[in-house]
Amino acid sequence: MLVTHEFPAEYDENSKILILGSIPSVKSREKAFYYMHPQNRFWKVLSEIFNEQVPQTIEDKKKFLKSKNIALWDVLSSCEITGSSDSSIKNPVPNDINSLIKKTKIKTIFVTGKKAESLYNKYCLKYTNIKPIYLPSTSPANQTIKYESLLEEYKKILKYLK
Fold this sequence. Notes:
- By secondary structure, the chain is an alpha/beta fold.
- It has a single domain (2-159), classed as Uracil-DNA glycosylase-like domain (Uracil-DNA Glycosylase, subunit E, 3-Layer(aba) Sandwich), CATH 3.40.470.
- The chain is built from 8 helices and 7 strands, in the order ββαααβββαβααβαα.
- A 4-stranded parallel sheet has the order 3-2-6-7, with helices on both faces.
- The chain is globular and about 40 Å long.
């Protein structure tokens, strides 16, 4: 099924880091925001590394990101995908990551998951010249990594926000 990214990047001019997924999941597409599957651990992990309550509403999530100078987007603007399975991605079309970077203070890019990393390296790196830092996927499909390990990996973010 052809999927088009239908909601905007979340950022402002003060964003210092960019976290990129591959393309929104089925649940995220339904709710028109990032990491919206109830079992996705993204918001829980991010909140915990900042010692804050997990934001519940989309508006709260936007405020949280802005307060931390974090931008969120996805590597792809469209692709063919079966459900939410990154391994099924075909005919990827990348977002213009470089245009977003030019509107911000972003100097560091994180990619969540191996597919986001490979897509970014193949389609975006040559334009941004910012080597991405890998973070494991927080998707409920990725149960090979335990919560404590996710926390440790995501703490990398903190040093780039000082």
